[in-house]
Amino acid sequence: MPPIGLNPSDNAAAHASNAAAASFAALVDKLDYLGSSDIEQVRLAYRFADEGHLGQLRKNGEPYITHPIAVAAQCAEWKLDAQALMAALLHDVMEDCGATKVELVERFGAPVAELVDGLTKLDKLHFNTREENQAESFRKMLLAMARDVRVILIKLADRSHNMRTLSDMPRSKWGRISSETLEIYAPIAHRLGLNQTYRELQDLSFRHLCPWRYAVLAKAVAKARSRRRDLIQKVQKDVEACFADYGMSIRIAGREKTLYSIYQKMDTKHLSFAQVTDIYGFRLIVPTVTDCYTAMGLLHQLYKPVPGKFKDHIAIAKVNGYQSLHTTLVGPAGVNVEFQMRTEAMHLVAESGVAAHWLYKDSNAQEPGNGNLGAQWLQSLLDIQNETRDAAEFWDHVKVDLFPDAVYVFTPKSRIMALPRGATVVDFAYAIHSSIGDRTMAARINGEQVPLRTELKNGDVVEVVTAAHAAPNPAWLSFVRTGRARSKIRHHLKSVAHIESEALGEKLLQQALRTEGIDNFDDENSETASIWDKLLRFTGNKSRQELLADIGLGKRIANIVAKRIAGLLAEGGARPDALVLTQHRFAQNEASALNTITIDGSENASVSFASCCRPIPGDPIVGYLGRGEGLVVHGTDCAVARRLQNKDAERFIRVEWADEPVRTFQTSILVTAHNGKGVLARIAATLARAEADIMHIDMGQEAAQESTELRFLIAVRDIAHLTTVIRMLSRTPDIMQVRRHTSVQTPA
User: Fold this and answer.
1) Closest Cα to residue 81, out of 185, 21, 154?
2) Has residue 332 got a pLDDT over 70?
């Protein structure tokens, strides 16, 4: 249905057209693909909806039932099944008519009731400007769609009809509804391959968001159309004659760029209307796939092709299932004309996308669109949801996949993979399988070793190198593009952090229990299990593992949990072990390591080192259990640590370095040097000889003077290694001073 106009006379004509199209008789005419029993079920749903909406009117004064019938008519265009058509007719009865889900189950069956219930929940969603509300609403809608794609098809039909009649709404609502349609519903239609709906939603949104720009562009396109009518007719006659001479039957149709896509091209590429050359084109529908390539050859003999303007979307389909051959030719008078060649099957998929599953339900399983069109993306939504419970994070993962400007790359076995533009090697690895992504350690593109953050280009042959010991790196999150890769990496990192925090929490709790004279509390017996149950009810945790992880993350204080356990044991008549208490006091007096956490650098996510003082082995240190941060290690003379001790003394625990740390640690040094040629190179060479790795260099923003200060972040083994580094740098020519640097200086 063409978009409605914005002036009153256009609206009146449109309302009359809508009312006629929304009669049930008009709907029945579109149901010839259903059996008589199915049509009767749809009729019963119509009667129920008609009775429920009796007396209700739309903003334009038409009976409300015209809206459900228009939605059902759009679903019938997609050849959806009887259940979907019944749900389309009934989609507002629970919200507006007081019908219950139980009543719908009894009258029309559980599948229809589930569809209506899903649509009712979607109708209650409000995409507010507050990001968290929008994210939660969006998550619910996508998950409903993933469970049954008919939900979103009916919702898109509903939104299409509402947009066609948006002029009846108060003008104050045009902006919000149009923006929501343009940002959310149109991309979903595109991602599911519903091209006709996608184009219509974009144009209707543009018309109501920017009515003046829309009107100016519409006028310009109409003028251009009349000026080029003779040219278009000549091209069409030449093409028809060419194919008639060859003996190939074709169906030729004109294709005009939508006003919104013209406006977008003008806006993004800073073009005038006269510079947009691909407003008009032709679509050739041919019998077979082979005929598509034959047709292209005939066209290239008829007119000269524009170099670089040929795209084969048949051999490599777009991510939403679209298939066609595209070529641009230099037509009469030097005007560029685009041609698209496709089969009837490809045409239906191109216009109807995921709805082609119903269009093809009686056809060959090999036909495009049957069975799993869009299924991979829909399944990935459920996968991401299983690993991402936070709505804003879910929205962050998914939104990039809604705009599939894709690149096509190959595996070493010549399998084609479609990924969003800007995707990296890591995205490719996770697209193959999550276990491949998790174990990725290196990659080759076209046989050459490349960094993992390398962006993929069309035609690249990508080979991923894995290792059993490899694991996702948090730095990957800064460059991956796909929602699947991002959610898998975050899920892995959270799992590792949880396991490590649980181990740290268990150690802290055991130490705290010893201060209360309790030992061997881990024994699995009925009394211990009973105390754990009471303790979990007290803390509100779901499991013992969750409580221990909370202790390790600093969300709960081990001493408080230990005192609660001691109290519960005392209620049962248990007394503290005198020997354990004596050992603990002796340990305190002797400064034994019994109550000390040992740090060797292998703790990963559960232990971090404060960036304010950057302690390294050999520095006296102290541990702070930040709220939700795990154990943060500070130097004892750190000003930040001192302030925290004055405020949160109970969160500090004793820590010490292991005798042999397993890795290097980062610290910062400040080098004052004379400006001169090659100074930085000499400093870097000295650091290399001292076996210190340079992690970062900060040269400041000040203009070069006689001398300059350079801040180096370096990795060293311990304090002795750092002393050696500073001594070697001090002996380097042109260096005036070297000292260790902290971001927060200790007050004098």
Assistant:
1) 154
2) yes
Classified as helix, coil or strand, 652 is: strand
Query: CA-CA distance, 322 to 312, in Å (whole number)?
Result: 11
Residue 740 · residue 668 · CB < 8 Å? yes
Residues forming a β-bridge with 254: 282
Residue 588 identity: Q
- Residues 252 and 469: their CA atoms lie apart, in Å, by 58
Please report, rounded to a whole number, the percentage of residues in the chain having pLDDT higher than 70: 77
H helix runs in 195-258, sequence order: 195-209, 211-227, 229-246
Residue 246 or residue 501, greater confidence: 246
Amino acid 369: pLDDT: 38
- Looking at the fold, whether 45 and 140 belong to one and the same domain comes out as yes
Range(s) of the domain holding residue 329:
219-359
Residue 353 has pLDDT above 90, yes or no: no
Q: Is 421 left (phi over 0), alpha (psi -120 to 50) or beta?
A: beta
- Kindly give the interhelix angle for 483-515 and 558-571, rounded to the nearest 10 degrees: 50
Q: Is residue 562 part of a domain?
A: yes
- Is 484 found in the same domain as 501? no
For tokens 């962006």, the residue is 455
Please spell the DSSP secondary structure of 414-465, one letter per residue: --EEEEETT-BHHHHHHHH-HHHHHTEEEEEETTEEE-TTPBP-TT-BEEEE
Residue 568, judged by CB atoms within 10 A of its CB (0-12, 13-18, 19+), counts as: middle
Which amino acid is residue 149, in one-letter code? V
Query: Using an 8 Å Cβ cutoff, are 614 and 588 in contact?
Result: no
pLDDT score for 728: 92
Give me the residues paired with residue 329 across strands. Answer: 305, 337
Pair (198, 329) in one structural domain: no
CA distance 286 to 243: 11
> Mean pLDDT over all residues of the chain?
78
The answer to whether the CB of 236 falls within 8 A of the CB of 229 is no
In angstroms, rounded to a whole number, what is the distance separating the alpha carbons of residues 28 and 457? 50
CA dist 509 and 513 (Å) reads 6
DSSP of 110-136, one letter per residue? Answer: HHHHHHHHHHHHHHT----SSHHHHHH
How high is the pLDDT of residue 589?
A: 42
Whether 123 maps to a domain, the answer reads yes
* CA 108 – CA 83 distance, rounded (Å): 9
End-to-end CA distance of the chain: 78
Q: How far is CA 542 from the centre of its chain?
A: 29
Nearby residues of 243 by Cβ (< 8 Å), 6 or more positions away? 249, 250, 295, 298
* Residue 191 pLDDT greater than 90, yes or no: no
Q: How many domains does the chain have?
A: 5
Query: Position of tokens 């030097």?
Result: 334
Active-site positions? Answer: 95-96
* Longest CA pairwise span in the chain (Å): 106
pLDDT at residue number 386: 58
**pTM, 2 dp:** 0.54
Instruction: Check pLDDT > 90 for residue 725.
Output: yes
Query: Among residues 430, 456, 489, which one ends one of the domains?
Result: 489
Instruction: Give the list of residues 6+ apart from residue 567 with CB closer than 8 angstroms, or none.
Output: none
Nearest to 710 by CA among 746, 682, 747, 748: 682
Angstrom distance (rounded) from CA 253 to CA 246: 19
Distance of alpha carbon 260 from alpha carbon 252, whole angstroms: 24
The residue among 492, 467, 495 whose CA lies nearest residue 480 is 492
- Tokens 């690249």 locate to 460
Relative to beta strand 630-635, strand 607-609 is parallel
Average pLDDT over every residue of 545-551: 77
Judge if 393 and 521 occupy the same domain.
no
- Residues 561, 539 contacting (CB under 8 angstroms): yes
Alpha carbons 84 and 581: distance in angstroms, whole number: 71
